[in-house]
Amino acid sequence: MNTISRFPFFRAKYGSDLLIDVVELKYARRFLRTETVHTLVYYDITLITEGEGCFSIDEDTGMVKPGDVIFSRPGEIRCWDIRTIRNGYALIFEEEFLLSFFNDPEFLGRLCCFRPGRIFSRCTLRESIYGRILSLMMDIQKEIATLSRKDDHLLRALLYEALILLDRSYQQEIPLLPDQATGSNPYVNRFLNLVNQYYKQEHQVEFYASQLCITTKHLSRRVKETTGKSAKKIIQERILTEAKRLLRYTDLSVAEIAETLSYENDSYFIRFFRLNSGVTPHQYRHHYKA
């Protein structure tokens, strides 16, 4: 396959542009029978309630069971075992749904469970939190079923509560690494979001510094102090993540992937990949295809 199946948000499902929904997995499974490997254009929080099986978000693969919750950002590659994970609930939403009310464009970027580059995409909820999150999802379902346009704010409040409780649970189970402690530095948060937006075309720190209206030296110092990594390294890691996705889940040639990621030729791309991963693109693809 040369492309990964991409699922958009069904905006008109309820007759208007409502950018939030709760979907039962037993109904979603039928759409994945031939599209097991896929990506979403929206945020997804999947709570497992029945069955066990393998669930992958990019390179984070593991077994999940009832009480586990999985977080995915737009564009991440997902794959799960629809034969043995029998049911659960997916709370899905677009960022626009929150931004149209909350004057905080960095809110989602500060949540550790959704942070770009996080190592783990799932956690296990304590019984009390599991019950509360399931109740919030049911409340969102009920509110959508009886929604009038003036009631959008209640849906946002329910989503906001769910996000805060889930992020607390995530942080309790998965301690922050030094490069995840960016919450106190808005420049670094904005830099990470910009990298996620422009990494395919823009590989130089200078571009991101200009977007933030600060000097390259200032940006580099802020990023290094906050994450322990150089700004250049963070850009390279984002490019490498996308390169691995394309090698693992598509049949695009190395030259086509190099072009997608704005490398002048495949030789430069191969050199970059080998320096940052320890193997060539062909070796990486062979390992995962095998």
Strand order of the largest sheet: 1-3-8-5-6
The number of strands is 10
Query: Can you give the helix content as a percent range?
Result: 40-55%
Low-confidence stretches are 178-182
Strand content: 15-25%
Can you tell me the overall shape? globular
Please tell me how large the radius of gyration is.
20 Å
Mean pLDDT: 88
> How far apart are the termini?
16 Å
Give me the number of helical elements.
12
Structural class: alpha+beta
Largest sheet: 5 strands, mixed
Features:
single chain, 290 residues, alpha+beta, five-stranded mixed beta sheet, five-stranded antiparallel beta sheet, globular
Describe this structure in words.
By secondary structure, this protein is of the alpha+beta class. It has 12 helices and 10 strands. The strands form 2 sheets. Strands 1-3-8-5-6 form a 5-stranded mixed β-sheet, with no helix packed on it. Strands 2-9-4-7-10 form a 5-stranded antiparallel β-sheet. α10 packs across α11 (266-277).
